[in-house]
Specification:
Two copies of one chain form a homodimer. Chain A contains 16 helices and 20 strands. Chain A has a seven-stranded mixed β-sheet, covered by helices on one side. The first copy, chain A, has helices at 18-34, 59-74, 154-161, 179-194, 257-275, 289-302, 319-332, 342-356, 363-384, 394-399, 420-434, 441-445, 465-477, 482-487, 492-504, 506-510; strands at residues 4-10, 39-41, 80-88, 92-100, 103-109, 134-137, 140-146, 166-170, 198-201, 204-207, 210-213, 217-219, 225-228, 235-242, 245-246, 281-284, 307-311, 335-338, 387-390, 412-413. With 537 residues, chain A is of the alpha/beta class. Chain A is elongated and about 85 Å long. The first copy, chain A, has two domains: 4-250, Nitrilase/N-carbamoyl-D-aminoacid amidohydrolase; 260-462, HUPs (Rossmann fold, 3-Layer(aba) Sandwich), CATH 3.40.50.620. At the A-B interface, helix 2, helix 5, helix 8 and helix 9 of A face helix 2, helix 5, helix 8 and helix 9 of B.
């Protein structure tokens, strides 16, 4: 017979929405109690949402979070709850309150504060080194830790040294491709080292560039996976613990790598749009593969009735591009508008002719078209209050093969962390799973082109994506130098050229909209080089 | 007779330019030796430039910095040098090498790593708690500390406890208004506590959003100011120490508050433009005060021959605006181009008429004009490789009274941290110092207007700037809540409205170009709230 029934409440908190988060916690608490849970585990900083960033520097916000926690605590009954919140004591701590019957039984303060990659916790919090209190919950001794604490042995072993028979680890752990596998390997090790079950509860939902993927986990004291919650959706995972054993429980199948990225993109987009108060989005449909993928994601995120496509053909657009965009939109069931840009294009040429007289053509003549389209799209956005989704991929963001204020103009850059080769894989997988050409084959088959001059191809300006993407991965995600890339076998000229493109275009990326992080090093919050920078890579 | 002659080499290092920085260090070292200096003090992380940000995560960069330091050390003679560099040992340290006669005598590792405001040092470095070595330089015992170490008593007192008769503090301390006064008050206290002279050497120059203001200082062991270098320029400050006394030395006059901000804007602009490889800039001249100030700054930063003005009148532009812009440009001696936007404006209206049929006018009709101007300006920028300087001020950035991809389009936002009321003060001060109307009186006198519809005034959409700016200061720089602002006497409706505007427009600021930080809390690197955020302030 189980000694302790635990509910892992994998909920979608909203940053800054204190009252809403309190309600979400209480609703999940009640649901868990109905399932007979004696302990309910909530995510890290669930009261504030994660990451609250500089809201934590506002004393009134931190005070309001404490009041919100108090209201939640007051509603608890016999079932204990572990609730993440920012605790203002002598300093500010990233903390977890353990509470029941209207009282706080004790507070654990996070030991290890991540301050790398997308994390800035040392900007806000003080690390504690005091072993956490161990709580008696229905006769079982429960230790509590928070997120990063699980990544070193010490905090969990300290709980066990204090007598914990089970260790809870509450998280706001953001997604990147492969993260679930890493977490499971780590937690298996940690449970085995500790000899006690580990209950790993994660946040779910999108927050600006981050997606929290849920996938909460329970490991038994021998390091075996005992339970796994759904990824990318709210869930309540109920497990019966008989420490160090865990009774057989639900183990949701983990998503395959490519659809996992797709689900991250869908959730990140849905939450950015909805949490910011928008209902509809608008997307420029070029007939190319990037905008096709973004439109498909938007439809899965919001429903086709909330997705609007705009076709903006120019004098250089091929008939095929327009047709392909129309076929795509019809297949997705989304509304489209067609706004040819020729009139504005001609007007700009006339307006600028006196200034440009006698000066040869360059990239200016291409960018002006892209910026006309950006203006059309933003004007439609302003008129109807639809959020613009941009369609640039990571290969373009890396190399600067995008027009600032042109195709980069918009509110959310859905695939900005997805390299072009992965864009293709996502589209093919989408079609395979759907059993039909959601992304028309013609779009998959044609060579990529910006269509800003006659017969233009991406390969006029960039290496083939199959060559380019691995160099970007090494230079950007691996922080490898040009010399290291060459030593790994890349062509020296290619490596130098890509490094130069990446470095010289940091200024563009700084002005890009946020987008979903799906890699372990995304442009934006994750990778922070200087703009002014003479290091040649 | 002095026991030790010290040269404080206040130099302008460039981030990532390792070879260049080595040369700058050696040139200044040689100059100091020619002045008879026995100890030459260089800024924090002078080898890499500051802040190197995520370049520090690239192992090849850190290794190259070590090689660069070794080359510099090899060139040193009898005079000792204190040189900031990133030291890769078991961990990475923010360090200072003391060297002479081709050898490193010892290394000090920074104790206190700032991780607040614009600083992220804990992202990269490990803090040391070991007392620094004390060095014998020409018979005087010299202790070394780095920047933040001076802001707590411990590190300097630890040097003295080790026998230091003088403590060097090397810095990369960024400017904000009033910073010099704070530093001097602190260092006076610290020198008095320690009872030894403190030699405070600072970096000078612009790096992205930061300006390092120089103004290196020497205090004697009684806490009296003994020497001050120039602000905002490279300098070599030579002092003779007879610890705890300091011989009478050069004390440069400190700039008054308003011209000090002006000099920060000039240096920040010059260095962003030049360090990024541009020679010329282009500015939209609206006839308003913001673009007038930016043009004046650009002229002081780069010379009038490198500044280009573009006039882009529309159907709503007053004749006065065009005339005022022309008078301004003539006074500054800059080239102008006039590109009326009517043709493009009409083209967009025609193109969008079918989409907007039956829908009332809103902000879309205004923004489209601003975005046409943004496109003209960027097309000119792309054509001639001139960097676009944007002209938005902090009051506009705070409230979102700016058009994304319109007037916000450009490479560097010179006055984005300058509130409108300070824009006026800067212009009046500029005219007073010049003894003529550099900024024409007509521009100073007329009410601010975006001129995007007939008879528009800023006050149609915003409170008067004299009311607005103090609320912004409290809400943004002071992190005060609406309730706190009301308790301080601000109108509740005004406070709520401003807080809402600030919060709702974070998405725009994220896509703004970098600009010079002159306040202690600037938008950008300094203030980092979430975009998705339901906290009502």
């Amino acid at each position: 017979m189980a000694r302790l029934r635990v509910g892992v409440a994998q909920i979608n908190a909203v940053v800054g929405d204190l009252d809403g988060n309190a309600q979400r916690v209480l609703d999940a608490y009640d649901a868990a109690v109905r399932e007979g849970c004696e302990l309910v585990v909530f995510p890290e900083l669930v009261i504030t949402g994660y990451p609250p960033e500089d809201l934590l520097l506002r004393p009134a916000f931190v005070a309001a979070a404490a009041e919100t926690l108090a209201k939640v605590v007051a509603r608890t009954g016999d079932a204990a709850a572990v609730i993440g919140f920012p605790e203002q004591a002598d300093r500010l701590y990233n903390a977890a309150a353990v509470c029941a019957n209207g009282r706080v039984l004790g507070v654990y303060r996070k030991h290890l504060l991540p301050n790398y990659a997308v994390f800035d916790e040392q900007r806000y919090f003080t690390a504690s080194s005091e072993p956490g209190p161990v709580f008696d919950v229905a006769g079982v001794r429960v230790g509590v830790t928070i997120c990063e604490d699980a990544w070193e042995p010490e905090p969990i072993l300290a709980c066990v040294a204090q007598g914990a028979e089970v260790v809870v680890n509450i998280n706001a752990s953001p997604y990147y491709a492969g993260r679930l596998v890493e977490r499971e390997a780590l937690l298996a090790t940690r449970a085995r080292q500790a000899g006690v079950p580990i209950v790993y509860g994660n946040l779910v939902g999108g927050q600006d560039e981050l997606v929290f993927d849920g996938g909460s986990l329970v490991f038994d004291g021998s390091g075996n996976l005992a339970a796994r919650a759904t990824q990318f959706r709210e869930d309540l995972l109920v497990v019966d613990l008989d420490p160090p054993a865990v009774a057989p429980a639900r183990i949701e199948a983990a998503l395959d790598p490519v659809p996992e990225v797709y689900e991250a993109l869908v959730l990140g987009t849905r939450d950015y749009v909805r949490k910011n108060g928008f209902t509809d989005v608008v997307i420029a449909l070029s007939g190319g593969i990037d905008s096709a993928l973004v439109a498909a994601i938007a439809v899965d995120a919001l429903g086709p009735e909330h997705v609007n496509g705009v076709l903006m053909p120019s004098r250089y657009s091929s008939a095929g591009s327009v047709d392909d965009a129309v076929v795509l939109a019809e297949g997705l069931g989304i509304r489209t508008f067609t706004v040819p840009i020729e009139r504005a294009h001609a007007a700009f040429e006339e307006m600028l002719a006196p200034v440009f007289e006698g000066v040869g053509e360059n990239v200016a003549e291409e960018n002006v078209q892209s910026r006309i389209r950006g203006n059309v799209l933003m004007t439609i956005s302003n008129k109807f209050n639809w959020l613009v989704l941009t369609t640039g991929n990571k290969s373009e963001m890396a190399t600067g093969y995008a027009t600032l204020y042109g195709d980069m103009a918009g509110g959310f850059a859905v695939i900005k962390d997805v390299p072009k080769t992965l864009v293709y894989a996502l589209c093919r997988d989408l079609n395979a799973r759907a059993g039909r050409a959601v992304i028309p084959e013609a779009i998959l088959d044609k060579p990529p082109s910006a269509e800003l001059r006659p017969d233009q191809k991406d390969t006029d300006s960039l290496p083939e994506y199959e060559l380019l993407d691995p160099v970007i991965e090494g230079y950007v995600e691996g922080d490898e130098s040009v010399a290291e890339l060459v030593a790994r076998g890349f062509d020296p000229e290619l490596a130098r050229r890509v490094a130069r493109m990446v470095d010289r275009n940091e200024y563009k990326r700084r002005q890009a909209p946020p987008g979903v992080r799906v890699s372990h090093k995304a442009f934006g919050k994750d990778r922070r080089p200087p703009i002014t920078n003479r290091w040649p890579g």
